[in-house]
């Protein structure tokens, strides 16, 4: 469908006209509200992180704790708050299933319907943004995007966002050396992240007492810092034996575009509550009413990257009558 539209329409890229909506798109993609709508946190002793290490942990001990994230097959939350660049609070719900199935919808207010639809399936990821009179749909194939060394708007693979939320796995052969203790008492573990464009370097900052991650730093093959995630307000999930952060501050630094900061708060998670056989609900949105932007072609500066709007969008986004997600289920641990 998208290929046919691109063959039919051609237009020149205008970076100035795309700059604001690009900023909105990347801000929302990296997990998209008013704090009043978030479920209050309950300080239940069972969910408070407990000490794991009694002395400085070894590489094997850190890797074992991090790899407990492999017990997580799905995450779901009806209470997500994000503030991109300290500009605006947005409401959202999210659902994620291994490996690349993801959907998030929301906007300024649940009462006014959805302003964005963000998602991923095994082949594609997308960002549908209704902001003003120029709705835009950013799309890209995972395999094509991952092979591009120069990336506009989004400097990392969308799957990195899951790591920012605390779902981190480490292959022992990719560890670069023993953990290093920092002056603030935290420990750093360096790992290699192979990719089609070269080897990225990932630094994982771990709490030496509780074993959870406090910070992620990702550098591209040239050594340039492209993404960081500061992780706070952890809660322990006994069913998977792992603590997850409930506040994450992400900073993304594209090579050619302005940096972006996103402050995310998750009220509560439902962990592994989704049917592992669920494969529907992760389809590309209908492109009618959107200016379609192929991120792969946009990164290459190709004029056919942008397909103009073909159908006048509706006056208002469809109303959302539920507070959950299309895969309703109880919120429990």
User: In CATH, what is the homologous superfamily?
Assistant: Lipoprotein localisation LolA/LolB/LppX
CATH class: Mainly Beta
User: How is the biggest beta sheet arranged?
Assistant: 16 strands, mixed
**Helical content band:** 10-25%
In terms of structural class, how would the helical and strand content be classed?
Answer: alpha+beta
Query: What is the CATH topology?
Result: outer membrane lipoprotein receptor (LolB), chain A
Please report the number of helical segments: 6
* Total strands: 16
Mean pLDDT: 79
What's the architecture in CATH terms? Clam
Give the percentage of residues in beta strands: 25-35%
Number of domains: 1
SSE sequence, one letter per element: HHHEEEEEEHHEEEEEEEEEHE
Shape from CA axes?
A: globular
Give the low-pLDDT segments: 1-21, 26-40, 317-333
How far is the N terminus from the C terminus? 40 Å
Report the radius of gyration as a whole number of Å.
20 Å
């Amino acid at each position: 469908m998208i290929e046919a539209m691109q063959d039919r329409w051609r237009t020149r890229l205008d970076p100035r006209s795309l700059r604001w909506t690009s900023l909105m798109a990347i801000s929302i993609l990296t997990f998209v509200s008013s704090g009043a709508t978030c479920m209050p946190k309950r300080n239940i002793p069972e969910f408070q992180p407990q000490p794991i290490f009694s002395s400085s942990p070894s590489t094997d001990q850190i890797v074992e704790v991090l790899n407990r994230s492999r017990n997580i097959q799905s995450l779901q939350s009806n209470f997500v708050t994000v503030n991109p660049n300290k500009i605006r609070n947005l409401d959202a719900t999210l659902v994620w299933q291994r490996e690349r199935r993801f959907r998030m919808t929301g906007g300024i207010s649940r009462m006014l319907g959805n302003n964005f639809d963000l998602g991923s399936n095994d082949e594609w990821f997308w960002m549908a943004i209704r902001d003003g009179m120029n709705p835009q749909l950013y799309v890209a194939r995972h395999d094509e995007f991952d092979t591009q060394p120069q990336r506009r708007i989004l400097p990392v693979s969308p799957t990195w966002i899951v790591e920012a939320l605390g779902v981190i796995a480490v292959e022992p052969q990719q560890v670069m050396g023993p953990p290093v203790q920092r002056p603030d008492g935290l420990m750093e573990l360096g790992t290699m992240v192979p990719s089609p464009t070269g080897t990225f370097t990932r630094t994982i900052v771990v709490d030496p007492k509780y074993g959870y991650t406090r910070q992620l730093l990702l550098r591209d093959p040239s050594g340039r810092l492209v993404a960081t995630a500061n992780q706070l307000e952890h809660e322990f999930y006994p069913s998977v034996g792992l603590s997850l952060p409930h506040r994450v501050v992400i900073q993304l630094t594209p090579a050619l575009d302005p940096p972006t900061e996103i402050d995310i708060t998750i009220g509560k998670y439902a962990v592994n509550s989704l049917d592992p056989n669920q494969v529907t609900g992760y389809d590309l949105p209908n492109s009618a009413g959107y200016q379609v932007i192929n991120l792969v072609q946009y990164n290459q500066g190709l004029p056919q990257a942008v397909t103009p709007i073909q159908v006048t969008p509706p006056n208002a986004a469809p109303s959302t009558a539920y507070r959950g997600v299309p895969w309703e289920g109880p919120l429990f641990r």
